[in-house]
TrEMBL record:
Type II secretion is composed of four main components: the outer membrane complex, the inner membrane complex, the cytoplasmic secretion ATPase and the periplasm-spanning pseudopilus. Gene3D superfamilies: GSPII I/J protein-like. This is Type II secretion system protein I. GO terms for biological process: protein secretion by the type II secretion system. It comes from Leucothrix mucor. Belongs to the GSP I family. PROSITE patterns: PROKAR_NTER_METHYL. Cleaved by prepilin peptidase. It is found in: Cell inner membrane. The gene is gspI.
């Protein structure tokens, strides 16, 4: 049988094909891993925003005028502990205060950025 009659792939061709497959599969695995990580971060931010909105709603339902300053509290949502920090800031409009609620996942370390911050404005009743 002559060399020109033999059909098939050379070892180099097979190795190049395997290299291409390996590189593309590793990229696909990395993309899927990043997608899972991003989904986890998104759910954390969503829960943190809900905690902040719950705190704004609790303040609104109390119906009392909040004095300017800062207060902290803890709560639990989605089997996770959260810390919120609420800041009441006087606005340029009399009888209207700004309320900022920043939410952190627990345990919180110094220098952490909040998972979410929600803002509301409240008029004096």
């Amino acid at each position: 049988m002559s060399a020109s009659a033999c059909k098939g792939f050379t070892l180099i061709e097979v190795m190049v094909a395997l290299l291409i497959i390996a590189v593309s599969l590793s990229g696909a695995v990395k993309v899927m891993g990043n997608g899972a990580h991003n989904a986890s971060l998104l759910s954390q931010k969503t829960f943190a925003q809900w905690v902040g909105l719950n705190q704004l709603t609790a303040v609104k339902l109390k119906g009392t005028w909040l004095k300017t300053g800062e207060s902290k509290g803890k709560t639990e949502m989605a089997n996770q502990k959260w810390q919120w920090v609420q800041k009441v800031i006087k606005t340029e409009i009399d009888n209207v205060n700004r309320l900022e609620v920043s939410v952190y996942s627990m345990p919180r370390t110094r220098g952490d950025n909040p998972q979410a911050t929600v803002v509301g404005f409240f008029a004096k009743p």
